[in-house]
Structures are given as structure tokens and as C-alpha cells.
Amino acid sequence: MKNKFFKHTIIFLITVFLFTSCAPLPPAGTALTPEERESAKKTCIARYTAAGAVGGAILGSLLGGKGAKWETAAIGAAAGGALAFAIAWGHCLSVYSDLNSYPVAGARETAQKIGYNSSQGNITKIDKFYLNPDAVAPGGRVQMNGSYFIMAPEGTQEVKVTETRILHYYNPSENEWKELGSVDNVITSSLGTRKAEGNFDIPSDVPEGKYRITLKIAAQGKEDQVSKELTVKKGLAMLKYMWAS
After folding, report:
1. Are residues 115 and 218 in the same domain?
2. What is the pTM of this model?
3. Domains in the chain: how many in total?
4. In the predicted model, is pLDDT for residue 234 greater than 60?
5. Cβ partners under 8 Å of residue 30, min gap 6
6. Residues 195 and 239 grouped into a single domain
7. 152-198 tens-digit pLDDT
8. Which of the listed residues 7, 69, 200, 221 has the most CB atoms within 10 Å of its CB?
9. Are 217 and 102 in the same domain?
10. Do 78 and 56 contact (CB within 8 A), yes or no?
11. 87 and 13 assigned to the same domain
């Protein structure tokens, strides 16, 4: 009876994986309504956590003995699913975060402010970047705010700019940062200063710990990046509610 239950559990996980792996997701940068975004989040997270669970189940069944094969597989599925959630979040950044930028100062005004002259060649520089708040409970939201400037010698009118947001998780057992995922946003911009704003939604099931959100700007063969740490911890609901209000 027990083996039949565990067998059905693994079959169910594999079915979920196959179903969600085929479900379409909107391309990065697609404008979504709140309802569409929530649906995309669920579909994306289900796809990657199911993959982790199935992988753990298969590994567990291969390592388990004859008498405990399905039980070991079920344990592997649970462990694989738990470990997969943070990675799933990284894979799903395009629906869990957004970034928008817009010009706030032209080339002449920016050149005067930073002391730029054409002999300096191409410059890509992040001026400011910060998170608000920098500590949040699972299920909360973090706002990103920053600005950067793109400069080039006279004759350059517009340039292709790649704005990238990157998510890392600090693994205390290995004492190192692990990249979970990144999303590129490619735009065409005139020279000068741009303001960048966006949001990071924190899934309610994301593991507690230290994370790092990075903004990277690349243009004309030059790039710059700034990282800020984010603490995710239960019991910080007051910060979440204050920000939501």
C-alpha cells in the first residue's frame, strides 16, 4: 500500500513537470496586467520547482534499495523541490521583477556635471543604485532606484544599452555567492543621464537568508555594475506592510 502511494506521488510529480514545462511563458519585457503577471509567476515557479522535485525523485529512486525505492524517491523529491525554489525564482526573474529607465539629463548637462570631455572616449557609469527596503519578509516587495550616464565623443547620437538585473544567493554552507538568474533589458538611448526604477517581488516560499541584487549597465564596449545586499527574513512583515501602504 505504501509503495503504491509513493509510486503515485512520483507519477504525479512527473505529470506536473511535463505539463508545466510545456506551458508558454511571456517573453521578457512583455507588458502584463497584474492578473497575467500572477499567472505567469505560478506557471514559471511550478515549472522549475517540479523539475527539481522530479530530479530529486529520480535520484532518490536510483540510490534507494529495493524495499525502500519509492520511499527514498519521495524523500528525494521533497528535498529536490525545497532546494529548487531559490533557483526557480532566479529562472523566473522576468515575471518577478521589472526595470524601467528614462532620460533625466542630456549630454551637455551631464558633461558639465561630471566634467566630461571628448578625450575621455566612451563612458558608461552607474551614478547611484539602492534598494528600499534592504530587509524584507518573504512575500514582500523591494524597490530598486538608480541612475547612470552614457557619454561618447561628439558625433554619437544614440547608443544601444543593455540594462541587466542579476540575483545572487549567499550559500552559508559553501561560504560563497551563487548566481540564481539574470534578465537583460535592451534599449536605444541618447547620450546623457538616465534614471532606472523597478521592483523585485519576493516569493512567499523563498528561503530566508542573504541575497544580492545587481544592476549592470553595458554600452559601447564599456560596462559598470553595482550590487546591494538584501536580507530576507520572517518577522519583518511590518516593513512589508509599511512599504505596501
Report:
1. yes
2. 0.74
3. 2
4. yes
5. none
6. yes
7. 998 888 999 999 999 999 988 889 999 999 999 999 999 999 999 99
8. 200
9. yes
10. yes
11. yes
Please, which residues have CB within 8 angstroms of residue 68's CB and are 6 or more apart in sequence?
A: none
Phi then psi dihedrals of residue 108, to 5 deg: -65, -45
Q: Which three cell numbers mark 119?
A: 578625450
Residue 13 has pLDDT above 70, yes or no: no
Alpha helices in 64-195 (DSSP H): 69-91, 93-96, 107-114
The Cα angle at residue 37 between residues 203 and 101, in degrees rounded to 5: 90
pLDDT of residue 160: 97
Confidence category of residue 141, pLDDT binned at 50, 70, 90: very high
* CATH code of 102's domain: 2.60.40.3880
E-strand ranges in the chain read 97-105, 123-132, 135-136, 141-151, 158-171, 176-190, 192-201, 209-219, 222-232
Q: How far is the CA of 74 from the CAs of 1, 8, 12, 121, in angstroms?
A: 15, 10, 11, 59
Name the band, by pLDDT with cuts 50, 70 and 90, for residue 207. confident
Does residue 26 sit in the same domain as residue 68? yes
Rounded Cα gap, residues 227 and 213, in angstroms: 6
Contact 97, 88 (CB under 8 A): no
Same domain, 55 and 155: no
What is the Rg, in whole angstroms, of the alpha carbon atoms belonging to the chain? 22
Q: How far apart are CA 76 and CA 82, in angstroms?
A: 10
Q: Is pLDDT above 50 for 115?
A: yes
pLDDT in tens, 61-109: 444 444 444 444 444 444 444 456 888 899 899 999 999 999 999 999 9
> Of 45, 70, 91, which one is at a domain's C-terminal end?
91
Domain ranges, residue 121: 97-244
